[in-house]
């Protein structure tokens, strides 16, 4: 099995895929690649959450780095013209560390000791050799205050999906291993709550894309790989009626929210942290979001099953899991999943 696993991985990594990278401002970057549709052959998973391992020889010959795609693969695949052999997928990432300050302004406003200068230079050297930093250096550097530009594209079936606008991108070639899917099935729940921090927004964007499609008609077709929007074999009564994104983002990392709110039942709650601000009270926000219930029918309250997706730095994930467990003591209809690269 080990030999088979590595053989499959090397088979996928043998081919370089054309793509582009774009600096979006405030240390954010967008990667766009064309994923061969053959990668999804025989895949029946309908989870909106998927990650890939990316290899860039210019950054490191040996290293592979995991990235969660912001693209809902099933929706994108089903909405792409059958004559196309591939379709676009996208990833977001940030450089490590704060954006570089203006040196002249820093000299005037912030006196530094010799020791502080030495430590800062050492920290910058360490950051500069990181894999993501090398990849990000390929892109043009826009104004630090430039907003993140996202657009809404329409598929052949008239469905909307969120896509980052990466005009004037730098062309690159990358090798891609995957996709690997997370065990998520939000379609079985009435309310989905995404509690994310920083770049953890990537998985939330894929979930939002799935919800946008899922909410487009009264009777839903959950897209499966190898099917089209017109396929009826996956049709089922609609259950998923609300999607809430709770996004914690540091003030100096803030970018425009890449979500359109034209979809009924979709809600974004963004919380800025840092600069003396308090951290998000995840338990309070989760309790407030979970209080939503459907209208009562004939005096009987409809069931409101809740699924929570958690992603972000390790301390944020720990706090999110604790909040979910606390609410589970009061209600048994809440499930959660924490996405983490830590063992």
Description of the structure:
This protein is 25% helix and 30% strand. The chain is built from 8 helices and 15 strands. It has helices spanning 2-13, 73-79, 103-109, 114-128, 131-136, 201-214, 282-290, 314-328; strands at residues 16-25, 28-36, 50-55, 65-68, 86-94, 150-154, 160-164, 170-181, 191-197, 219-221, 235-237, 242-250, 266-273, 306-311, 334-339. Strands 4-3-8-1-2-5 form a 6-stranded antiparallel β-sheet. It has a 5-stranded parallel β-sheet with strand order 13-12-9-14-15, sandwiched between helices. Helix 8 (314-328) links the parallel strand 14 (306-311) and strand 15. The longest helix is centred in the middle third of the chain and has 15 residues, at 114-128. The radius of gyration is 21 Å and the shape is globular.
**Rg, alpha carbons:** 21 Å
Order of helices and strands: HEEEEHEHHHEEEEHEEEEHEHE
Biggest sheet layout: 6 strands, antiparallel
> What is the first-to-last residue Cα distance?
22 Å
Uncertain ranges: 98-129, 141-147, 151-162, 228-234, 293-301
Strand content: 25-35%
> Structural class of the helices, strands and pairings?
alpha/beta
> Helix amount, in percent?
10-25%
Number of helical elements: 8
- Give the tally of β-strands: 15
Q: Overall mean pLDDT score?
A: 75
Task: Estimate the global geometry from the Cα principal axes.
Answer: globular
